[in-house]
Amino acid sequence: MNFLLKLENISYSVRNSSSRKAESTKVILSDINFELAKGKILGFAGESGSGKTTLAKIIAGIIKPTEGNIISNFSDDWEKIKTYPVQILFQNNGDIVNPLRQIEAVIDETLQIRNRNKNIFHEKEKIFDSLNISKSIRTKKGYELSGGEQQRAALARILAARPELMILDEPFSAQDPESQWNFLNLFKKINNEYKMTMICIAHNLSLLNKLCDEMIILYDGKIVEKSLSSELFSSPNHPYTKFLLKAGNYDLKYDELKFSE
Amino acid sequence: MLNAIIDEISVNERLLLSDIKFKIEQNKIYSVLGSNGSGKTTLIKSLSGLLDKRFYSVKGKVFYKELDLLSAGYEQMLSIRRKKIKYVFQDAVNSFDHLKKFEYYFKLTAGKDSELENLLDYFLLPGVEKLFRLYPYEVSGGMAQRISFVLALLADPEILILDEPTSGIDSAISNLFLLKLKEFASIQNHTALLVTHDIKFAKKISDEIAFISKGKFYNFVPALKFFENENIIINNFLTLDISF
Fold it and tell me: Residue A131 sits in which domain range?
C-alpha cells in the first residue's frame, strides 16, 4: 500500500437552520473518493464555500463524515504516541500561537509529549534550522512576532508533533509576492526533508500549481476534476476548472462570473 | 483631480517616505505596487489627513481642486471624505462598528434605493431586507469588503481609494471588483487610486502604476512602460510574480 489515506464515498451534511422542517439537511460534501499517496503534495482548489476546509477537517478527524469511510495507513500507532498524525496549519496563525508564551517553550512542550524522557535537543535544533527560526526569535513571545514569523512558529509546532500528514489551509492569503515565494519553497523543503505528505488548500491556482503534485478541484461539495498539476493548466477538462483558470487571470466578463453547470 | 506634493511622511520622528510628487487625473485607474510594510497604506491615508496626528507628521500639500487637504479644517475634510473622496479599507470587517447593523451604515449614505438594490445584486450580496438586519461580525471578510465597496459607490464620490482590494477574496470576486472599478473610472470626473501587492491585478486594471520600496517612491508611469522597467529594484519585485 503506498497510500497514506483513502477516502471512500465521503459525504457530509448539516441540518438546515433556515428551514423549519426537522429533517431538512444541507449537503456540504457528497461522494468524495480519492487516495492520498505517501510523500506527495495534493492541492484542493475551489471558490469560497466549495467545501475545501470541511474536507480538510474530516481528513484531520475534527469532524466526522455523515457517510463513508477513511482508510488510514499510518506507520505509527498514534493512540500510543498521543499526538495525532494529521496536523493542520490554520488560516489565522496569529490567533493560534499563544501570545504570552515563548516560542521555544511551546516547541519544547510538544516535543516532550512526543518523546518522553528522550533528549529532544537535536530534533529541536533541526526544526528551528529548517524553518530558519533564529536564536533571537526563539525567545520571543507570540505577540512579538510578525505575521510571517508567527506562521513559521506555528509550522515549528506542527513539525514537533511529527505528523505524517500536514494540511495547509490557505497559507498564502494576504501575503505579498516575496513571502509567497519564501513559504512555497519552505513547504517544498519540509516535504523533501521530512518526507512529509501534504495537502494544501488555496484558491490561487497558480500558487498551487507550483507546490502540488496533484490537484483536486471542488465545486459545490463534489470533486469535479482530479489531475496532475502539470496537466491541469495545459488541458483542463471540467468547465469549472476552466472558469477558475480564467478567473485567476482576471479575464471573466460579468455574465461569466457566476459559474453554473 | 488630485495633486500631491509631499516632502516627508514620518512616524514618531522616523522618516517613512519622502519626496512624493504625483497628479491624478480623471478617467484613469492608478495603482501603487509594493511589498507588505513598504508604506503603501500610509501613503494613501496621508492624502486626506487620515493618519493619526499624534504619531504621524506629513509635510507637504495635497491639492484637491484649489483646496489643500492637509491644511483644511476638520468639518470641511469630513464633508469631503463623505462625498468626494471615499476609501475602501483593507480590513473591511473591522472598519465597521460590530454593534451596529448594516442598516445604520446604509442610512448614513444618501443614495437612491433603486441604485442600492442594483449594486447589491451586482456584487452578489443579499437583498436589502436581509442585509440590513445583519451585524458586521455575521458576514465573511469577502462580503464585508463588497459591502464596503457598495457603500463607497453609493456616495458617488469623485475619487475612490482602495487598499488591497483583492487580498483575502477569491478570484471570481476579484474579477467583479475589476469590472466595477473600470466602469467607475470611465464616468466623467471620476478616478480611482489603489494600492496592492497583486502584480497581475495591477497589470490588468491600471492605466498608471507607481512603486514603493524601502522608503522610496517611484512615480506613476503608464502601465505598459512600468512592466518594461529597467530599474533593478522594480524588476526584482516583478520577477516575484508567481501568477504566470
Answer: 80-85+93-163
